[in-house]
Amino acid sequence: MHILVIGSKGFVGSHVVEYFSDRKYTVSGSDMSAPDGTENYNYFNSGTGGAGLHEIFASIKPDICINAAGNGSVPVSLLNPQLDFEANVHFNFFLLELIRQYQPHCKYIYLSSAAVYGNPISLPIKETDLIKPFSPYGWHKYLAELLCKEYAVLYNMNTVSLRVFSVYGPRLRKQIFWDTYQKMKKDGDIMLFGSGQESRDFIYIDDLMEAINCILLKANLTGQSVNVASGTETSIDEAIQLFLQIAGNRKGIIYSHKNKPGDPINWRANIDELTSYGFKNKVSLHNGLINTIEWLKENA
After folding, report:
1. Phi, psi of 219 (to 5 degrees)
2. Local structure of 160: helix, strand or coil
3. DSSP letter string over 146-193?
4. Phi and psi (nearest 5°) for 12?
5. In whole angstroms, what is the distance from residue 29 CA to residue 106 CA?
6. Are 7 and 69 spatial neighbours (Cβ–Cβ below 8 Å)?
7. Number of domains in the chain
């Protein structure tokens, strides 16, 4: 079984390569950095990146393709929606076309985002709930999901979109735990956005890998979208207090009571569909943060 990982050097992609290589799959990776060197942004287009991918698909004809590439930053999407569209919509279309041409029976897993929901009306969020993004990033992730559905319906291709909630863990060099760790090293209190009462559904990177594996083994890939999360709601303040406790840091926290544009208020996922494929959340936030802090001490 040959797996092609797109965005193989990024946070999620590198873990996908490692996870499936350890399970004796044949794994190939493809990745290009952004033209401006932006971290955590895997840039492909129909030029240089596209030509290389034509050759890859024609030669290896993967059984599974996992797309972990694209812009993963809401602020970047707000500043440059065209770049976000090209990375998260156009490139997804390009990959679907490659699969249709070279390997139409390939299983295609697209890493989408819970950002498609925006601020949900009620919790937990179900896959059938209202789609109401409020950032270009959220809208473009949803458009990419629709493309996956289109190719499943019209061309009978095996596609699925994973609406990943707040994934964290070693190698993630952005977002709240990375930012908090950087501020721990400076003088004074730790300044954070929001009120601390905002909430997220955190999922540790190892559990995301288990979720992908369960979907590959058990799901019929018919263009559906699946929530991928722990199913547990945690306030930002609770998460940060736990983070500081594990890190042995006694700094004070000051919340600005100003929210970043594009950030949701409260998130908790309904993961009934995911658990129907055999998924069980194994890593608690406490244990996940222990591993994350160990990595941060060596790499941040």
Report:
1. -85, 145
2. strand
3. HHHHHHHHHH--EEEEEEE-EEE-TT--SHHHHHHHHHHTSSSPEEES
4. -70, -45
5. 16
6. yes
7. 2
Domain check: are 115 and 185 in the same one? no
Q: What is the CATH number of the domain that holds 150?
A: 3.40.50.720
In terms of C-beta density within 10 A (0-12 exposed, 13-18 middle, 19 or more buried), how is residue 46 classed? middle
CB atoms within 10 A of CB 23: 12
Rounded to whole angstroms, the Cα distance separating 106 from 64 reads 5
Same domain, 158 and 41: yes
**pTM greater than 0.85 (yes/no):** yes
What is the distance between the alpha carbons of residues 98 and 290, in angstroms, rounded to a whole number?
41
Closest CA to 287 of 230, 249, 237, 236: 230
What does the pLDDT look like over 50-66, one tens digit per residue? 557 888 899 889 999 99
112 and 218 housed in the same domain: yes
Residue 249: domain span: 175-198+233-262+283-299
What contacts 24+ positions apart, CB below 8 Å, involve 181-184?
Answer: 181/247, 181/293, 181/296, 181/300, 182/300, 184/244, 184/247, 184/249, 184/251
Give the integer Cα–Cα distance in Å for 121 and 130: 8
The answer to whether the peptide bond before residue 62 is cis (omega within 30 degrees of 0) is no
* Structure confidence by residue, pLDDT tens digits, 157-206: 999 999 999 999 999 999 999 999 999 999 899 999 999 999 999 999 99
- Name the amino acid, one letter, at 153: V
The total of other beta-carbon atoms located within 10 Å of residue 100's CB is: 16
Look at residue 96 and give its three-state secondary structure. Answer: helix
pLDDT above 90: residue 41: no
Q: Read off the tokens for 213.
A: 């594996």
Q: Are residues 211 and 256 in the same domain?
A: no
Tokens standing for residue 8? 């193989």
Which single residue is written with the structure tokens 């721990």? 184
Q: What is the CATH number of the domain that holds 245?
A: 3.90.25.10
Q: β-strands 2-6, 64-67: how paired?
A: parallel
